[in-house]
Design a protein that fits this description.
alpha/beta, Rossmann fold, Dehydroquinate synthase-like, alpha domain, 2 domains, two-stranded antiparallel ribbon, 11 strands, binds nicotinamide-adenine-dinucleotide, binds the ligand O=C(O)C(=O)C[C@@H](O)[C@H](O)[C@H](O)COP(=O)(O)O, binds zinc ion, nucleotide-binding, NAD
Length: 358
């Protein structure tokens, strides 16, 4: 079993990664959380139908009372209504400060369940039990949130989990589209920090349906290590953490304008990465964008903005991005692969680049 330590100013915690790591959950709870009496598993409809049974059985072995609350799949879970329903369920079922939340699912479940944990009675502990590739990103680092019609993750907190149990076998039931979404964040991690990892991905990953467990282990470990190194330095995004937002300025705008849940997060971020790479080239990055585009297209990604979205609406949406503090949109660009920077780009250039490539 692999274990990666995440160190942030507010908390240090382990990520257990591999086959059968989930079996260690009862002992971990017994040993470290003897004062916790109730566990609330929050999961989504799809994940619960496949994996909840096993997790419930394991959680019960810890000797604690186990409750479950099932939310809708994907972005439909990251709403005020669902957040409120989770809180109401927790109150109605007597959760208190000696209770813990287990978030079983992908990034959407992790984000909403984490935000419930962060705010229930001003904060109770939670553990991330990720079930998607994307969650190598979302389960680590403590960003928890729900969406607002005005923008993605607009209501949230920085709230670290107690631990992450990343059971590799859960990924075996993931649909290819969701794998593709998660792999975009793997690419992002490589581009912002690790040219060798980027080369490894380019050479090794030619078919998302054929990724081996060994390859998963390697890319998840690398991705988490990259994220951990950044979060350690800047937990609350006052500086370098913004680099983890590479591809997200346009990506979040695409997700929002398409209607949450109609476009996967990773697929939108990938389009945002293409755009940010193009802007970076304009600012001097030397990068083989043709090779990149051919590679990602061969993996099934679309590299175009959906036709129904107009450039003016995209720019308006991007102006509400959390990184932007004036009227000029802030992007994460690359100087070289592995060397990101923040740059304010004026609307004229943004529009010109949008028109040139999309
Ligand atoms: N907090 C962070 O730092 C952070 C980082 C990246 C992304 N995010 C957020 O994460 C969300 C996306 O997360 P995600 O891509 O993991 O998706 P998700 O949680 O939306 O899940 C995607 C779909 O896959 C299904 N699914 C999940 N695991 C499965 C499994 N093992 N087998 C079969 N089906 C399964 C779900 O039911 C859902 O239908 C977005 O809301 C994004 O904003 C957060
Ligand atoms: O952890 C971070 O920091 C990230 O930016 C990771 C992103 O992949 C993730 O999508 C995050 O939720 C985006 O955060 P936001 O602050 O732009 O909403
Ligand atoms: Zn993301």
């Amino acid at each position: 079993m692999e274990s990666i330590d995440i160190k942030t100013p507010s908390k240090e915690y382990p990520v257990f990664l591999g086959q059968h790591v989930i079996e260690q959950l009862p002992l971990f709870l017994e040993k470290n959380y003897s004062d916790i009496t109730k566990l609330l598993i929050i999961s989504d409809e799809k994940v619960a139908s496949i994996h909840l049974h096993k997790v419930k059985e394991l959680a019960a072995k810890s000797g604690k009372q186990v409750l479950e609350y099932i939310v809708p799949e994907g972005e439909h879970a990251k709403t005020f209504d669902v957040f409120y329903q989770c809180q109401s369920f927790a109150l109605a079922n007597g959760l208190n400060r000696k209770s813990m939340i287990l978030a079983l699912g992908g990034g959407a479940v992790g984000d909403v369940a984490g935000f419930v944990a962060a705010t229930f009675m001003r904060g109770i502990p939670f553990i991330q039990l990720p079930t998607t590739l994307l969650a190598h990103d979302s389960a680590v680092g403590g960003k928890v949130a729900i969406n607002h019609p005005e923008g993605k993750n607009m209501i949230g907190a920085f709230y670290q989990p107690e631990a992450v149990f990343y059971e590799l076998s859960f990924l075996h039931t993931l649909p290819i589209k969701e794998l593709r979404s998660g792999f975009a964040e793997v690419i992002k991690h490589a581009l912002i920090q690790d040219p060798e990892f980027y080369k490894w991905l380019l050479t090794e990953i030619q078919d998302l349906a054929a990724i081996t467990d060994e390859q998963y282990l390697y890319m998840i470990k690398r991705g988490i290590a990259i994220k951990a190194s950044i979060v350690k330095e800047d937990e609350k995004e006052n500086g370098v953490r913004a680099y983890l937002n590479f591809g997200h300025t346009l990506g979040h705008a695409v997700e929002g304008l398409m209607g949450y849940g109609n476009f996967t997060h990773g697929e939108a971020v990938l389009i945002g990465c293409v755009y940010a790479l193009k802007l970076s080239q304009y600012k001097g990055l030397s990068f083989d964008l043709v090779e990149f585009m051919e590679w990602v297209q061969s993996l099934g990604y679309s590299t175009n903005i959906p036709k129904q979205l107009d450039h003016t609406s995209l720019i308006q949406k991007m102006k509400k991005d959390k990184k932007t503090i004036s009227d000029t949109i802030t992007f994460v660009l690359l100087n070289e692969v592995g060397f990101p920077e923040l740059a304010e780009i004026n609307d004229e250039i943004i529009l010109k680049q949008l028109e040139e490539i999309f």
